[in-house]
Amino acid sequence: MAKTNALTYHSAEKYAIDLWLTCENETDSRLKLSNRMMGLVLMIGLETGARISDLLNMKYSDIKEMENRPNVYVISFYVKKSKTHHKWLISSNLKHRIDATREYMKFEHGYYGDYIFYNPTTEKTFGRVWASKRISIANKLGKMGKVLDVAGSHSLRKASAHNLYERSQDLRLVQAQLKHRNIATTSRYLGLEEKEALDKAVHVLGY
User: Fold this and answer.
1) Between 55 and which of 4, 50, 171, 195 could a Cys-Cys bridge form, CB atoms 3.0 to 4.6 Å apart?
2) Is the CB of residue 20 less than 8 Å from the CB of residue 43?
3) Is 185 helix (H, G, I), strand (E, B) or coil?
């Protein structure tokens, strides 16, 4: 199986915001909802680095304001792979968009439940296949920066991890975000070992 590549973080973020802001212009109510939810999937995925299957099961009640830190929010979610619970920060802008989506779901679809990514048509949460297809199509159309050979739902997680590492240069912080048990796994995930080897080769061979 081909290796999934990381999306370009800022291009994916811009596409997510555009999707969310322009969804009301759609005349098809199903596409209006799908675009809103897809924009939110991208935004939450980019900020949290959560696996898509865990992300799609997130709930409104999972979001709490941090004690002694006004307007700083964390989202708690279950990590199916490790069978543990995890907490990570989300921005106040993202919190606002999640709240707005909750009100939209109440007003437009009469949905007062707790799941963020509820699909009233199927009466279930939106699924991983839906998200992966939307990401793959957007990638092929060049909507999220450089067109990748392989892009899917896991490309979001990789984009989030790469962005956090580039901003912090802190491998252990990325390990905490991804909830990896071993920091060597995080290093391989970011491709640091290969990158460092190539940088050394360039220096030694004089290219």
Assistant:
1) 50
2) yes
3) helix
Phi/psi of residue 107, nearest 5 degrees: -75, -45
Is the CB of residue 52 less than 8 Å from the CB of residue 154? yes
The pLDDT of residue 203 is above 70: no
pTM recorded for the entire structure = 0.90
Tell me the pLDDT tens digit for each residue of 135-156.
Answer: 989 989 989 888 878 777 788 8
3-class SS of residue 172 = helix
How many helices and strands (H and E) does the chain possess? 9, 5
Structure tokens at 142: 């060049």
* 146-156 CB burial, b ≥16 within 10 A, e <16: eebeebbbbbb
DSSP per position, 92-157: HHHHHHHHHHHHHHHHHH---SSBTTEETTTTEEPPHHHHHHHHHHHHHTTTTSSPPSS-SHHHHH
Reduce the DSSP state of residue 40 to 3 states and report it: helix
Both tokens of 121, joined, read 């048509």
Q: Which of 53, 114, 55, 57 is nearest to 90 (CA)?
A: 55
